[in-house]
Amino acid sequence: MRWPTSAAIPVVLATLLAGCGTDGGSRADDNSASAGAAGSTEPGKRPGSRIVLAVTDGQSHASVRRSGRVTVRGGTLRDVVLSTGGRTVPGRMSPDRLSWTPVGDLDYDSRYTLVATATSEDGRDATEKASFTTLRESERFVGTFTPDDGSTVGVGMPVSFTFDKAIANKRAVEEAITVRSSSGRPVVGHWFGDRRLDFRPQDYWKPHSTVSVKIALDGVKGADGAYGYQNKTVTFTVGRSQVSTVDAAAHTMKVSRDGKPLRTVPITAGAPESPTYNGQMVVSEKLVQTRMNGATVGFAGQYDIPDVPHAMRLSASGTFIHGNYWGADSVFGRSNISHGCIGLKDAQGGGDAARDGAWFYSQSLIGDVVIVKNSKDRTIAPDNGLNGWNMSWADWQAGSAAH
């Protein structure tokens, strides 16, 4: 069976990238910050304090998270005043008086004035001022991502972002996301259209490695009227290596764990009129039980099963590997009868742990790889689900805006 895209699929899971920004210069229009120094540096004299504002004077579309921040070098902050509409914005001075941060985010679409005064180590004062306007909330773009922070995934799991606005400045957005593996393998991004950006290494992730994703999108201009908001670092762990190979002609699936055979399972794949895709597919969702209705994927009236057990999504268009309790035992390992999915023997309700469907579900992680071969269908498209492994490394790199 094929089943439509679900709101639960991680590639479109609305996991908003939250978290506070880090100190430093603005990443907005001119990607620079304002700085001033007390007096000039003369021979034999120590330089004055240097005040660094996170915005430039006159800046528009400024970040609501970072724009009011102030730091100083070579001295200490004496006073910082951030104001808007006749009111003063509360802030926190660091104990060492080297930085000042507003309490909470600034308001959207508002004009602010920032005045900071510092005293240098030799007692001289300096003042730096800036007026700026924050971006409108409608100008903010947000990325959803997979996998989740702290998760353990299979070796095939890409890092995938989906943006809620079309991205024109792809290089700036891609460069603001850094993906690193503890294995040291290079990781490259690839754009599928103007809203989706995936990252992967040349080959599957190294088992038991750790992957960090640093997201520094706050203030990044993705397009006219589209500015980033998010700063966060997420980390996930790659588990053991499990790759399962389905032979649609032989009606079997060979499950391998860390390169060694684990189990061979009889299966039923897509019937001749609705064959299963070939290619490398990644498990992107696990459902203990779900409803599958043929009317949603062009098979109206052919099936509507309310309690399909142990379903794991392999494509956005509706390819699953799942338990099948309604087919006769004689079809498994002998014939292909499905509407495109891969079926395993299972019990209604999924309560029999000895059945193949329950066993495979219990052994699988999001990010595990299922390879289908010898089917009568074409190879699955790389952007249909998390299936970029069906693209050569050269073609993958060609789709990077920053590589």
UniProtKB/TrEMBL annotation:
Keywords: Acyltransferase, Cell membrane, Cell shape, Cell wall biogenesis/degradation, Lipoprotein, Membrane, Palmitate, Peptidoglycan synthesis, Signal, Transferase. GO terms for molecular function: acyltransferase activity; peptidoglycan L,D-transpeptidase activity. InterPro entries: Big_10, LD-transpeptidase, LD_TPept_cat_dom, Transpep_catalytic_dom. Residues 242-373 form the L,D-TPase catalytic domain. GO terms for cellular component: extracellular region. The keyword tRNA-binding does not apply. Pathway: Glycan biosynthesis; Cell wall biogenesis; peptidoglycan biosynthesis. SUPFAM superfamilies: L,D-transpeptidase catalytic domain-like. Residues 25-48 are annotated as: Disordered. Pfam families: Big_10 (PF17964), YkuD (PF03734). It comes from Streptomyces nodosus. The active site is at H322 (proton donor/acceptor), C341 (nucleophile). This is Lipoprotein. Residues 31-40 have a biased composition (Low complexity).
